[in-house]
Amino acid sequence: MYFFNNNKVEKNDTAQQQTAEAVSKKVESVSENSESANENSFDENSIENLTDETLVINYVKAHKQLPAYYITKSEARRNGWNPSQGNLCDAAPGKAIGGDQFSNREKKLPIGNQYFEADVNFSCGQRQADRIVFTKKGEVWLTKDHYRSFQKR
Prior knowledge:
6-stranded mixed β-sheet, 16% strand, Nuclear Transport Factor 2, Chain: A, alpha+beta, single chain
């Protein structure tokens, strides 16, 4: 009887776990391919795959952290990134900006949490407006207008 009462919950947990595993495998596969590529053969389009909003959001929800190919702004600067030049793909191939704290100054997100930000839907060149803001609990918000509005995901 107990099994049947919890069968739906177990199925949901299994489905969530399978989704998380599939996302992890895709992230690991794309990340391994980008890390093994040298600068001459690096495909700039792969960063678009790495930072696809759905992929990153699902990964953060499942793992409560960003994929390993995200680096903070200070790490990127140490690698030679200059934001005004939009040279992240040259300075740190296969990497994206993410992991810095988000202050929530305007209080548009719930108060009392520690937030982190990351670029999504990035293509080489200047950073665009698409970001996620997330907590270590796996809560995620998407902004497509550089923090003016947020959608809970």
